[in-house]
Amino acid sequence: MEFRQAGQKWFIRIDRGEEVLETLAGFCRQQGIFLGSISGIGAAGQITLGLFETATKTYKSTEFRGDFEITSLAGNVTTKNSEIYLHVHATVSNKDCQAFGGHLNMAVISGTCEVVVDQVQGGIEREFNEDVGLNLMKF
Ligand code: FE
Question: What are the structural domains, with CATH classification, of the chain?
Fold first, then answer.
């Protein structure tokens, strides 16, 4: 992973073999980025996407292996118990250019991944909401 800062934005290149969420969380921790938005594109060879099932309040996850374009990575940086908390969704496409997506659990980069983190001053904490079954933003 390499990066360059441009104002409040950080341009990040995640390299082959690196896992996206782990890399971004480590980066945010290192740079002290506690609030911001994430956007990106890239290519991954191993991806786990989840779907939150509201009735059971559990995540169903599916793993994919092969060549995939990450056509869109969208998410945010907040905190939970003052620790960096990433919430990222991904849309990926296969060799037939068919796209599908979900809550990103993990993605290992096969080509490259280009992410822009737009840092915002301040912080937003999350708190687990029993009713919903998710870590919601607390205002
Ligand atoms: Fe999600």
Answer: 2-137 (3.30.1330.80)
Our measurement of the distance from residue 136's CA atom to the centroid of its chain's CA atoms, rounded to an integer in Å, reads: 16
The whole-model pTM stands at 0.97
- Residues within 5 Å of ion ligand 1, judged at the Cβ atom: 103
For residue 89, how far is its CA from the centre of ligand 1 (angstroms)?
6
C-beta separation of 124 from 139 below 8 A: yes
In angstroms, what is the span from residue 16 Cα to ligand 1's centroid?
24
The string of pLDDT tens digits covering residues 91-127 is 999 999 999 999 999 999 999 999 999 999 999 999 9
Q: How much distance in Å is there from the Cα of 96 to the middle of ligand 1?
A: 26
- Residues 54-77 have pLDDT tens digits of 999 999 999 999 999 999 999 999
